[in-house]
Write a structure and sequence with these properties.
This protein is about 55% helix and about 20% strand. It is α/β, with parallel strands linked by helices.
Length: about 550
Amino acid sequence: MLELLHIENIAVIEQADIRFRSGFNALTGETGAGKSIVIDAMGAVLGGRTSRELIRTGADKAFVSAEFSSVPTDLPGLAANGVAPDEDGTILLQREIFSDGKNACRANGRPITVAQLRQIGAELLNIHGQHDGTALLDEEQHGAYLDRFGRTEGVLTAYRKEYDAMADLKAQIRALKMDEAEKARRMDSLRFQIDELERAELVPGEEEELTQRRNILRNGEKFMAALSGAEYCLFGDDSSAGAVNQLRDAEEAMGTIRTLGDDLAELYKRLENLRCEAFDLAETIRDKRTEFDFSPEELDAVESRADQLYRLKKKYGATVEDMLAYLDKCRAELDAMETADDTLILLEQKLKKAETAVRTAGAELTRVRKEAAKALEDRIQRELRDLDMKKIRFAIDFAEKEPAADGCDTIRFLMSANVGEDLRPIARIASGGELARIMLALKNVLAEQEAIGTLVFDEVDTGVSGRAAQKVAEKLAQVSRRKQVLCVTHLPQLAAMADTHFSVEKGEEKGRTFTHVVLLDREARKAELARITGGSQVTEALLESAGELLDAAEAYRKSI
């Protein structure tokens, strides 16, 4: 459960530490006091989207941390991201939001990305926003709710594997069934490109060799002059001795005294090695000069080949290797088009088998979903009765559709608000209060199956009042015996039912707006409930009524 939420420089909250407790926690306060900011802070530390506008005016960054206790060690999100609870089952999530839009996130001190933080946070806490009820109006989400309840992941994955294979075959067939005129144009283009590349007789690595040879040929005179000069210095001529001969003379001179000491023998050996190396070097230079055969015709041929490669690279690839790869690709495409009719027959045969496999997998998915739908209908109906919606009928409708990525079913939630009326789509007949309670029922049912330890309800009482509000309060109290519940509310019935009550209060200090979160004792709770009920005019009668409401709520909590 969420033990501590620490907030720094989030909107009007300069700093706050909110120590939540197990059971039912309520947050109340005047409109605009900052209750939603607390929820925004929770969303931020769970990896939700944030804006730099969230940072308090004048601050460079905002910081939020959330400490969770009794966290199971086998949560997939933790294992996938290399995070483990402490020995006492504690997880500390942290997020810094900087004014330049950057984020720094950590889990138990380990740096993680926002996406990883979101994956971990989704397994620890679930936020039901005040507008989540409208999600029920989107019928495309109904199937996702059912799959989540029925835990159809395995069957759905098997279906999608077959569907993806079928979709791939259809894409291949569409590519082969191009317009005949377009096909002919494409084949002519491929043949021209293949012919041009084949006539070029490309050789891997030739471009580098060609460039090197061209540089030598372009500098032929300088090349020959350099080699000749180097050879003369090493070998000399009839009138002067070169370095090799002079080294030989030095070697012979040292040879006469090399036996007189080890150091002299070493000098002699070094001279001998130097003379041999100089001789080998001179021979290599002479061979280079002798082998060099410069002709204007060869330079013209090299220049022409380099220009050909340059023109081909502009059309087919940045290197010879890229052009050869493109040639292979063209050959394969042309071969596929020339044999398209045979390939098409084979693909269509495979497609029939794939369609059969999809229908089979789809039928299994539908069967599993329908079993889950019956259980979900019963559970939702029970929840709605607890929420004072005894006359409402809830049902899940299935309609067959062409196979798609999400299955072969169109799934819709239907309801009848009054006795004798037909079941109709929720979007057409549900009021705001009914949507809120149906969504609450759905959330409760889904939460029972998940390991999430904390449920947050942000103004779940929207559109609810009177007896219905009392039923919602009782339902949240029941849920809080299994999960930790945090609820932002404007209704006295919900606030009174809480085990722990916080007041979000806004004030001014030194010309700045500040929001504080205060834990209320019984007397302060009475005053807050009286304010919620009667506004600014808090009378003794309202205070007495608030006390009675607290007593009744306490009695109910003890009874469950």
